[in-house]
Amino acid sequence: MDISTGGVAGALISDSTDQRFMQDVIEASKDSVVLVDFWAPWCGPCKQLTPTLEKVVNEAGGAVRLVKINIDENQGVAGQMGVRSVPTVFAFKDGKPVDGFQGAQSESQIKDFLKRIGGGGMAEQIEQALAVAQQAFQGGDLTQAAEIYSQIVQAAPDNVEAIAGLARVYFASGDADRARAIIDMAPEDQKSDPAIKSVLTALELSGDGTSSDDLGELRATVEANPDDCESRFELAKALSAKSDHEGAADQLLMILEKDLDWNEGAAKEQLLKIFEAAGPKADVSKSGRRRLSALLFN
C-alpha cells in the first residue's frame, strides 16, 4: 500500500495577515485545499476548535493546509469575507472560497466537511490503510501490519492510531522495548488518547512481577481450592502478563462472582485494566463488560 505525502511546499499550519492573505491562501489553494480559521484571543469556542482543526490537518498528510487569522489584528479580510462571529472557517480551493462553517465542530464533522469539498484525499487513504493494518494484525500477519503502520506514521507522524498500532505490533512480537520507544513518538498532548493508553496498560501488565510464577503450579493451586481468591488473582495477573487477556478475565470474573468487592475492589480494577489493554473493540472487552454488568446489576 503506497502512502505518500507528495511534494507539498510550505508549512501545513501557519498564521497569516491581511497583507499575506493573497500568498498564503489564494495562491496556496491552487495546490491544495486551504482552511482559513478566523479566530480571536478572547473567543472560548476558538480554543476548542483550533486544536481539532490542527489535528485533522496534520493527519491529512498534505491534502489540506490551515491558515489562522486573528481578527483583532487583521480586520480587512475578515470584513471582506463577512465574518461577524468567531470562530468562522472558510475553505479555499483553486483560489476561491468553496464552503465554510461557524462555531466549534467535532473532529468527525470537520473530516466530513473536508470530504464534502474534496480535501480529504490523503485522510481517506490513511483511514483505509489503518483498516487494512488492523485486519492484518487481527489475522496474525504482524509483518504486513508493521509495514502499513510504518508507512502511515511516515506520512502522518502525528497519527495516534498508527503509532499505537505499530507499538502494539512490536509488543505482540515480544519486543516490549521497541513498543515503548514507538509510544514515545506520540505528542505529549496525545499520550492520554485511548489508543495510546491501551498499549501503555498492556506494557504495564506485561511487566507484572507475577509473570515469573509457574503457571502450572498456580493452576494446580486454584483447581485444588477454587475458593482461594488470592491464588486465582495471582493466576489472573500471570496470565495477563503473558497477554492471555481472555484467560485472565475469566479468572477475575470468577472472583467477582463470589465477591464483587473482593480485596477492596482489586479484582475489578485489574479486570478494567485488561479491558483497556485489549482495547474496547476486542472480543474479551465486549464480552467481559457484558458479564461484569450482569454481575453489577443482578
Helix content class: 55-70%
* Helix-strand string: EHEHEHEEHHHHHHHHHHH
CATH topology of the largest domain: Glutaredoxin
Number of strands: 5
Number of helical elements:
14
What value does the average pLDDT take? Answer: 88
In the predicted model, the low-confidence regions spanning at least 5 consecutive residues are 1-10
Task: Classify the beta-strand content into a percent band.
Answer: 5-15%
General form? elongated
* Major sheet: arrangement of strands: 1-3-2-4-5
Broad CATH class of the largest domain: Alpha Beta
Radius of gyration: 25 Å
N- to C-terminal distance: 49 Å
CATH superfamily of the largest domain: Glutaredoxin
Q: How many domain modules?
A: 3
CATH architect. name of the largest domain: 3-Layer(aba) Sandwich
Structural class designation: alpha/beta
Structural features, described:
This protein is an alpha/beta fold and 298 residues long. It folds into 3 domains: 13-119, Glutaredoxin, CATH 3.40.30; 123-206, Tetratricopeptide repeat domain (Serine Threonine Protein Phosphatase 5, Tetratricopeptide repeat); 209-296, Serine Threonine Protein Phosphatase 5, Tetratricopeptide repeat, CATH 1.25.40.10. It has 14 helices and 5 strands. It has helices spanning 21-27, 44-59, 76-80, 107-117, 121-138, 142-155, 160-172, 176-183, 194-206, 215-224, 229-241, 245-258, 262-278, 283-296, and strands at 13-15, 33-39, 64-70, 88-93, 96-102. Strand 2, helix 2 and strand 3 (64-70) form a beta-alpha-beta unit. The longest helix is centred in the middle third of the chain and has 18 residues, at 121-138. The radius of gyration is 25 Å and the shape is elongated.
